[in-house]
Amino acid sequence: MAELTYREAVAAAIAQEMRRDENVVFLGEDVADAGGVFKTTVGLLDEFGPLRVRDTPISEQAIVGAAMGAAMTGLRPIAEIMFSDFFAVCWDIITNQIAKSRYMTNGQVALPLVIRTANGGGVRFGAQHSQSLENWAMMVPGLKVVAPSTPADIKGLLAAAIRDPDPVIFFEQKSLYGNKGEVPEGEHVDELGIAKIVRPGDDVTILALAAMVPRALEAAEILAAEDGIGANVIDVRSLVPLDTKTILAEVSRTGRVVTVEENPRLCGWGAELSSIISEECFYDLDMPIVRITTPHVPLPAADDLEDHAIPSVSRIVETIRREVD
Amino acid sequence: MPQLGETVSEGTLTIWHKSVGDEVTANEVLFEIGTDKVEMEVPAPTSGVLKEIRVDAGETVGVGTILAVIDDGSAPAAAETPAAKVAPAAAPAQPQRQSAPSRDKSLKLSPVVRKLLAENNLQPGQITGTGRDGRIKRGDVLAFLKGTPAAPAARPTPASSGDGRTVVPFNRRRQMTAEHMVRSKATSAHVLQAVEVDFSNVDAARKRAGSKWKAKEGFSLSYLPFIAKAVCDAIAEFPKINAHVEGENLVAFDAVNLAIAVDLDFEGLVAPVVRDAGSMAVVDLARAINDIAARARRDALGPDDFQGATYTISNNGTFGTLITAPIINQPQVAILSTDAVIKKPVAVVVDGTDAVAVRPVGVLAQSFDHRAIDGAYSAAFLRRLKDIIETREWAAAVP
Predict the structure, then answer these.
(1) Is the ipTM, as predicted for this complex, more than 0.85?
(2) Contact criterion met (CB below 8 Å) for A113 and A67
């Protein structure tokens, strides 16, 4: 094991896969020379050269379009969209072309590509550079959607995404880039579609994703110490495919479930999970399913307001304390 | 207009036997009424003067309507009460709905709590809710089922208060028994019937098994397995005895899952189940009953040992009791008490001549739920039970 930051784990995963497979290429804005605006891809240009690690013009459509074309011709491209907010300008290519190609060609054209992006708020970037858009991607048939919370998961799940035969949208949470964690050395590949129980407990299951996972864990410790409530924290990790097996088993076991979501409330990923849970294990529920989310508003840039909007540790604690009673 | 039957909402006054101004005596026939089910003479409830007739012969009126007024000479304000007594204004009873936990919308029960209550045949009132506003949580039901209070409330132990009184707080088993007994009495219309049974043939079988049985099996062969076998065989002919009441339905079962009430050395009562007792021979029943009783006494029964009972036998005979009126094990239809079998002089017929003989005799008493079955059915079942015990060659059933 080595201690890496969340951002270093990104470069480690890409490097691991580029060394393994020469068809893996990487492109994006300021990713090569500058090593990425979030310094997530430092060193890749030096090791793999300008043919495989490419800076692009400031045109997100060009990036995803080029990635799609490269994938069609047999490469395994990794495209970076600097801020996930810019998916909005790529949506035709991603949803109408990339997501549907395997289906519309009856499997003749597969697109083994990854679109990485810095997602989410918490770093005062304002409404157009802070959105949590995992739910946008989740609702498109044909896309896989992954959002890790730890450096180890970044390395393992990004490697798995690169090896996946179909398009994967890989959400890195930009406020987590500085977080450190133990990462397995050598080749490390995880599996998509497996949720992880990161803190076992018997009283309430907390389903969390990305930046909400460390907050849920912190809240769980407070609930255990101050209220004697045993919170069972699950890092969902992958929205598509979704590990319903683990989630439903844990919800049934604890009888109570709370989602902690950074995306805005309406049609957030937790709404879909709530729907699945109430259909599949309604008779095991001991309280209403509770969703803790960012409200249905554009995210403010002001420190206090942004902190107030995104689910905080204290909001998680207070909500669970109130609802689990 | 009196209530003549549960489902009758009106009646026709057919004949007046008295006219206004006549003297009437209590219990003298005052008038006759008819419904589509019965004709009935109705006596005067009190003595006095028939002051007023409000409903003429031939009229049909609703139950509870005042038909006449008798002046019994008491206070004027009471003048109408005699008539009111003749015709108690009892509204037709509303059909009793089964209070399944899922029906009561005023109780905020979560889905899992509703499921657990239904699965374990519990009512919400049995469980102490520890949630907000007393809401019952899953843990409360699980704790109740485990026999431990959900809240870690300090359980007081028996304490002498120094004033000559010893306070023994009900433990969880006592609380559960108390609740179940009161609920059963409030739920079922208990009727007791008993038959006196000659156990000579059973005694012959027990003598035959004798000490060999005890040496081999490690326990004595009592009357109980024979009675249990006879109960199962009688039930085969009277299936409504082996049943539950569910709401307004009687649900009869093919298999006899026989609950046996076991006393825990005066420390409580449990009723574990011998499954599919009807398929078992007497010796197997003896072993099965001994097994659950032994496990009950060393607290080694699991939840499965209590599930699905369809009929219950309570054995009180070891203490020499003559007859016991048992309380039905809900939601079953009937329960049998076996009391002491003792030698008694009984009248028998020997070669066509009446004679007195000494025979082992005991009373079998059954409480049944009159909501579900009637006395004749229960009595016929008991007669069959008695016949089987008295006439079967039981000795052939033991080694």
Answers:
(1) no
(2) yes
